[in-house]
Every structure is written in C-alpha cells, then in structure tokens.
Design a protein that fits this description.
- The complex is a heterodimer of chains A (57) and B (239).
- Chain A is of the alpha+beta class and 57 residues long.
- Chain A is built from 1 helix and 2 strands, in the order αββ.
- Chain B is mainly alpha-helical.
- Chain B has helices spanning 10-20, 32-40, 68-75, 98-105, 109-118, 123-148, 153-165, 170-184, 186-208, 210-223, 228-237; strands spanning 2-5, 26-28, 47-51, 57-61.
- In chain B, the strands form 2 sheets. A two-stranded parallel ribbon of chain B has the order 1-2. Chain B has a two-stranded antiparallel ribbon with strand order 3-4.
- In chain B, helix 5 (109-118) runs antiparallel to helix 6 and helix 6 (123-148) runs antiparallel to helix 7 (153-165).
- The longest helix of chain B is centred in the middle third of the chain and has 26 residues, at 123-148.
- The chains are: A alpha+beta (57), B mainly alpha (239).
- Strand 2 (49-53) of chain A pairs antiparallel with strand 3 (47-51) of chain B, so a sheet runs across the interface.
C-alpha cells in the first residue's frame, strides 16, 4: 500500500513549477502622458506594472 | 503602474490619447506588447500583462479578467510609492557612488547630488551628476508640456515635489521661479480652477451618468469657456 502511494506521488514530486519568465524590455519610439524617468524594466524595478497591449483601431 | 503599449506611430496614438485624455503613460512604436504576446502564445489585443516588482510576468489575460487578487499578488514586496516616486532615477553607472545611486532611486535628488559632490573628480560621480541633471531638465520639460495641455493634477504635484527636494540646490532656483510664474499666471490659474470644476463634474458622471451630470458640465463650459476643461466638457455633452 505504501509502495503504491509512493508510486502515485512520483509525478507530483517530479513537477517543478517553472519560474515566472522575465518580461522583454519595455521599448517605445515615444511616450505620451508620462512623468518621470522613461519607463523601462530598470526604472520600474520595485513596482508592479500592468501593461496593456492595445491599438487605436 | 499602468503602461499602455501600442506598436502604432505617434501620429495615430497621440490624437487618441488627447481625445480620450488617457491618464497613464502611453507608448507609440513599441514592440514589447508583441514580444510579450509571443512569449505566451497570445496574438490578439487588447491583452493585459502583469509584472511583479522584479519585472517577471506573473499573469496575463483579457483586461476584463484582471482581478484585485491578481493585483495583490503582483504587488507583494513592491516598494511603497510616495510623492517622490516621480523624481526617482534608476541606472547603472560604473564607479558611481552607490549611496548616491540609492538616493536617486528613492527620488532623493538633492541627497544624491550632495553625495556626488563628496566624490567630485571621480568619473562615475561626474557621469551620474550629468545623468541626474538631464533627468531634472527632462522632468521640467514634461511638467511644462502637461501644464500646456491643461493636465494639472500630477504635473503640479511633481513640480511641488521637485521644488521641495531641490530647494537648497542651484537647480532648485529655476524650479521655484517656475512655480511662482504659474501661481502668478492668471490664464493658468483660470485653467486650474476650470480643471477642478471639471473633476467634480466627472465624479458626477462616474457616479450618476452623463445625463445627471449634464448641468455641471454645462456650468464648466459657461464659467470657463476658453479652457481645456471646457473643451473636454463640450466633448462629453456632445456640443
């Protein structure tokens, strides 16, 4: 019974959640409506960032 | 911090930003949205991506599916953001005094300049001094642009923070002078009053809808006819 339980647990033991991937750098040809240092991963370190990918159409 | 990224050119994005008076930074000609999409196999827009304080992607989805729980998780361990956040400068400069870099990242620009002065003559200190001076010049330019388009809330708060921080630094003189100019400029003061009246009307719009708020919006147009606020109010009423 114990052996069965161990075998059943193997897939769970093998599962390692992948680390959340690093975002690509935040780039722009120009910025509107921003105050402060140009937004980048470095300038925004220490803050949670919500990025909206959008278009005018 | 909210950022809107579009890969379209500024000529398309900026009129849209102006028309809808978007209250957060908007990027034109950005590839980051597409790259984030490629990372997670997402092709359509709009799509939201949430980064934690280390810049790691911790959630993505349609904007309507973002919840307070997601935000709370992403914000765990984030720095507290105060009025000096807008003054913050982060960068890597070889040989720059580490404590000066720390002060600059905290928005303590006067303190950073003071620490740089202690190591005057070192290449790193000189480079950091240049970067921070350029940063202050940039901030002043951004504030002036915001004031010019009638966007007073954040810009005047930023000017106040900058003036307070640099009051004993040579760069502070010009900033205090600009504050005085704004206080004495009747046109700008009229615009500020109009903006405040519009803010109250917009609260009504948010709480009770445009029909109920129409009188307040019309009052803004009547009292402050040639202001940015009146233009926005007219747009909302449909005049």
């Amino acid at each position: 019974m114990k052996r069965l339980a161990l075998l059943a647990a193997l897939p769970l033991l093998a599962f390692v959640p992948a680390e959340d991937p690093m975002s690509p750098e935040i780039d722009a040809k120009s910025w509107s409506r921003h105050l402060g240092q140009t937004p980048s991963l470095q300038s925004l370190r220490g803050r949670a960032v919500l990025i909206e990918a959008w278009a005018t159409w | 911090m909210v950022l809107a990224l579009s890969n379209e050119p500024a000529s398309k994005v900026e009129p849209y930003v102006e028309q809808y008076n978007l209250p957060f930074p908007v990027a034109s000609g950005s590839t980051a949205g597409g790259k984030l999409g490629a990372m997670v196999g997402q092709k359509g827009i709009p799509h939201s991506y949430l980064l934690d304080p280390e810049g790691r992607l911790v959630w993505h989805g349609h904007p309507n599916s973002l919840t307070k729980k997601h935000l709370k998780l992403a914000m765990a361990g984030a720095d507290r953001v105060g009025p000096k956040a807008v003054l913050s400068w982060r960068g890597e400069i070889d040989g720059a005094p580490p404590k000066a870099l720390e002060a600059a990242a905290d928005g303590e620009l006067a303190q950073a300049f003071k620490l740089i002065e202690k190591e005057a003559g070192s290449e790193g200190a000189g480079a950091l001094d240049e970067s921070l001076s350029a940063h202050v010049a940039d901030l002043r330019k951004q504030i002036d642009l915001a004031v010019g388009r009638g966007d007073f809330g954040q810009s005047l708060a930023a000017l106040e923070s900058l003036a307070k921080d640099l009051k004993r630094h040579p760069l502070g003189e010009a900033i205090l002078e600009r504050q005085r100019e704004i206080e004495e400029d009747e046109t700008i003061q009229n615009e500020i009053e109009a903006a405040e009246a519009l803010d109250k009307a917009l609260e009504l719009v948010a709480n009770r809808g445009i029909k109920k708020a129409k009188k307040s919006l019309q009052s803004v147009v009547k009292r402050f006819p040639s202001t940015h606020a009146a233009k926005r109010a007219r747009g909302l009423i449909g005049e």
